[in-house]
Amino acid sequence: MAVTLCVVFILVASVHSSDGNLSFASYYGDHMVLQKSPERAVLWGYGPEGTQVTVHLSGPMNQESLVVNVTNGTWYATLHPVEAGGPYNVTASNENSTATLTDVLFGDVWLCGGQSNMCFETYKIFNASEELALAAKYPHVRPFMVAEEMSKTELSDLIKVELPWSVPTAANVGRFSAVCWLFGRYMNEHLKYPIGLVQSCWGGTPIEDWSSSRALQKCGLQQNGPQASSGLWNSMIHPLLNMTIKGAIWYQGESNTNYNQDKYSCSFPAMIDDWRMAFHEGSGGQTADDFPFGFVQLSTYIKGSTLDGMPNIRWHQTADFGFVPNLRMQKTFMAVALDLPDEYSPYHPIHPRDKQDVASRLTLGAKAVAYNETNVPFQGPFPNKITSTSMYLNITYDQTVSVTPSAGIFEICCSVTEDPCGPTSHWVAVPIMQWDSTTVRVSANSCPLPYEVAALRYAWRDWPCDFKACPIYSTSGILPAPPFIINRYEGDVWECQ
C-alpha cells in the first residue's frame, strides 16, 4: 500500500509541471472540478521567486489571461466566474515552464469530512455491486481524496494525496467515501451539472482534531486531545482553505461520546463557524462566509445499551435545540440516522451499511438549505407545543405525522423540583395512547406522588428502534422524528391544563 501511495503522489506532482520550475498545489489536477459561478475559482501553485505567471483558461468559454506574481515562492490567481460545464484546460506558464490541467470541469465543490462513517467505503455498503456498476455513468461527479496525515503546525499544502482528481470508475469509487459519493451522485442527478467531491476524513477521530486552536479556545478546550488537538485541521483542512467550495457535509461524533461529550454542543458549532470564516478568508472571499454545512446525526452503536453517550451527542449535534437550522446553527441541514441500525454489519454495528438513505436525507437538506429550493421537506417532525394534565401529555408536532404504536420510546421525568431533568434523573417509559394527524398523546400518570412530570424525551437511547421502525415519521414516512428532551419549566413549549 505504501508503494501505491508513493506512486500516486509522484504522478500527481509530475502532471503539475513540465520541468519542476512551475507547478500547481497538490490538490489541483487533471479531471478536477472547480467552483462554478457566481463564485470565482481560486488557483495557486509554486514558481521561481519574483517571476510572473500567466494563467489561461481554454474551453467552451474562453477568458482573458491573468498575469500574477510569484511571492515567497507561490502564486495565486482568481479566475473570472465560469458557468457550469467543460471540459477546460487550465494553463499556468512563465518564460521557462508550463503546467497544464486538462479535462477540468466547473460545477459545485463539496468537502466531505468526519470520522469512520464518512470514510466508510462504497464497496462495503448494501447493494454495493449495483452502485459500483453505475459509477462510470456519472462522469461529471469527480472524486478527490486527501491522505491521512497529521501535523503539529498549520500547513499551506497537503502532505500527500490518496486519490487524485479522477473520472469515476468502479475501482476508485469503491474505495471512496460512500456518503460523499452518493451525495454527489444524487446532487448531480438533480442539478444536471458537475459535482466535485473532496474527501478529508479519518476514522476514530474526535472533533478536537478537526478544529483550529481558535475554535477550541472558544469552548475552553485545551490542545490535549487523543491525537493532539488540531492535528488534522493543520494537515487535512487548513491546506484546502484557498479552494473555493460550495459547502461541506460531515459525519462525526462517535469518538466524542466518551471524550469532551459535554463540550460538543459548543465545539461542533464553533468548528462550523471557524471553517466558514477560514474558507471565506482563504479563498479571498469567494467561498461564502456562511457556506451550507450538512451533517449526519449519529446512527446507533450497541443494541440494548442504557448509556447516554450516543443520545447526548445527537442532542449536542444540534447545539441542544433538537433541530437545524436554528439560531446557533444557521444554514445547516441534518440527516437523522437513528432509525438505520445494522445489527449484523460485518464492519461492526457502529458502521451501518445503509448509506443510501443517509445520503438521500442529506440531499433533501441540501436542496432546501444550500440551493434554496422551496417546498422540499427535509426535517422530521418536531414538537412545537406540549399540553399536560395529570393523566396525559399531548404532543403537537410542526407537521403532519405518521405514527405507529410504541410502549416505551417516550419517557417522562418524575421530579419534585423545577430543576431541568438530565440523564441521571428518574425517567419512566410511557406508552403512546392515541394520535391524530399532528398530535400524539402519551400517558402521564406514572409518577407517584409527590412527584410530577417535569420533562419529556423521545428516542433517548443508543438504539431506539429497529430499521426504519421508529414510531414517529413525516407523513410521507421518509423522515424520522429526531430525538428531543423538553423540560416543563424551560421555554414556552409546555402548557399545563
TrEMBL record:
GO molecular function, one term: sialate O-acetylesterase activity
Xref: InterPro entries: SASA, SGNH_hydro_sf, SIAE
One GO BP: carbohydrate metabolic process
Keyword Lyase applies: no
Gene3D superfamilies xref list: SGNH hydrolase
Residues annotated as signal peptide: 1-17
Domain of life: Eukaryota
Domain Sialate O-acetylesterase: 108-281
Keywords, ordered alphabetically: Hydrolase, Signal
Protein name: Sialate O-acetylesterase
Organism encoding this protein: Larimichthys crocea
